[in-house]
């Protein structure tokens, strides 16, 4: 996110005292949409369809009708199938109301069923979690359709065993503590002496701020909330031995082959923020249906996100590099075997203290 936003759930109660105004807005939107539709029907003959007035009315009808439906859903906020939340942007002094479906599978499935005359192909390096497509099939509704479908995983053309090393740590302390971040800073300090371009993937701006206070080195580039990520990426490419500390956009869709990126440090497992309104609503619905939200949603999502972050390293057949994962929970927690099982290579495990002592000796 590039702006500081306050996000929280809401219900129809926020419109108390403004019901009449809401009905007035809704009525005007419906009237505009209805009048545009009437005009389109009057001009239904083929000879009128290329006229500017016909195209304008069609545009007005489609836009207004879509806005009317969205306004009705968001102002009533009583649909159990949706997560309703507002976004307040202080510097703009406005509030944005959002209503998003909790289950994305149903609307996506309807779209697929409406086009049974065509085939769909989904391909990505991160469609699976724990070597299973179940998460993706639930999100797209494929697990509910009777349409024939085929799924498979294929070996990459990259020789990960030769091209990539993955290093995990124990003895790092609770990843939510300052002690953890202090130890992470020490590892980063050691790795920064390699003069190789590096990514440090954070899961929050608080982590970035912590590291910013620790490192006053000009090679470090720190992502800011209000800063353009593309500009930071350009600076990273231009600087020798650059160390970019970022979150959000830098976990995916970034292509830095060769010596543009040779080391990745992942601070923590990228679990979704638990108080995010959409995540909270989805987890609540799962619990109501006797489904374990952590096992069936939170963990698979985090594994996919982790694979996306790791995937920034090897982009070509001659790339080589190292990935350091500092969150020891993947070694100590019961879910860790699912995380480790999704790695491209078997990781090496170091004790923090032993690692630091070896580096000092070398």
Order of helices and strands: EHHEEHHHEHEHEHEEHHEHHEH
Number of domains: 3
**Radius of gyration using CA atoms only:** 25 Å
Second rung of CATH, namely the architecture of the largest domain: 3-Layer(aba) Sandwich
Share of residues in helices: 40-55%
The level 1 CATH classification of the largest domain is Alpha Beta
Report how far the terminal alpha carbons are from each other.
Answer: 41 Å
Query: How is the main sheet built?
Result: 7 strands, parallel
Number of strands: 10
Q: Name the shape in a single word.
A: elongated
Strand content: 5-15%
Describe the structure.
This protein is an alpha/beta fold and 362 residues long. It has three domains: 6-101, no CATH class; 105-144, no CATH class; 160-361, Rossmann fold. The protein contains 13 helices and ten strands. A seven-stranded parallel β-sheet has the order 6-7-5-8-9-4-10, sandwiched between helices. Helix 9 crosses helix 10 (293-310). The two termini are 41 Å apart. InterPro entries: ATP-dep_Helicase_C, DinG/Rad3-like, P-loop_NTPase. GO terms for molecular function: ATP binding; DNA helicase activity; hydrolase activity, acting on acid anhydrides, in phosphorus-containing anhydrides; nucleic acid binding. Belongs to the helicase family. DinG subfamily. Pfam families: Helicase_C_2.
């Amino acid at each position: 996110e590039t702006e500081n936003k306050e996000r929280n759930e809401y219900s129809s109660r926020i419109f108390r005292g403004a019901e009449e105004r809401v009905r007035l807005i809704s009525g005007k939107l419906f009237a505009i949409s209805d009048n545009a539709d009437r005009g389109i029907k009057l001009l239904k003959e083929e000879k009128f369809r290329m006229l500017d007035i016909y195209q304008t009315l069609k545009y007005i009808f489609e836009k207004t009708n879509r806005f009317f439906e969205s306004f009705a859903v968001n102002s009533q906020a009583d649909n159990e199938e949706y997560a309703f939340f507002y976004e307040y942007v202080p510097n703009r002094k406005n509030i944005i109301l959002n209503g998003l479906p909790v289950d994305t599978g149903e609307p996506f499935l309807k779209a697929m069923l409406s086009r049974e005359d065509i085939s769909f192909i989904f391909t990505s390096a991160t469609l699976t979690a724990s070597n299973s497509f179940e998460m993706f099939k639930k999100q797209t509704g494929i697990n509910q359709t009777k349409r024939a479908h085929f799924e498979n995983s294929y070996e990459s053309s990259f020789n990960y065993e030769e091209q990539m090393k993955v290093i995990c740590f124990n003895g790092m302390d609770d990843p939510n503590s300052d002690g953890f971040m202090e130890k992470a800073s020490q590892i980063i300090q050691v790795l920064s002496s390699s003069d190789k371009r590096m990514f440090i993937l954070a899961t929050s701006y608080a982590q970035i701020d912590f590291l910013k206070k620790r490192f006053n080195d000009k090679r470090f580039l720190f992502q800011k909330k209000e800063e353009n990520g593309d500009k930071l990426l350009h600076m990273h490419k231009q600087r020798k031995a650059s160390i970019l500390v970022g979150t959000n956009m830098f976990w995916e869709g970034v292509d830095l082959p060769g010596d543009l990126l040779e080391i990745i440090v992942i601070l923590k497992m990228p679990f979704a923020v638990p108080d995010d309104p959409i995540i909270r609503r989805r987890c609540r619905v799962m619990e109501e249906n006797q489904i374990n939200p952590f096992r069936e949603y939170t963990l698979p999502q985090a594994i996919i996100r982790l694979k996306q972050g790791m995937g920034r390293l090897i982009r070509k057949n001659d790339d080589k590099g190292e990935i350091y994962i500092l969150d020891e929970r993947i070694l100590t927690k019961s879910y860790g075997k699912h995380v480790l099982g999704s790695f491209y290579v078997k990781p090496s495990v170091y004790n923090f203290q032993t690692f630091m002592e070896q580096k000092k000796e070398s």
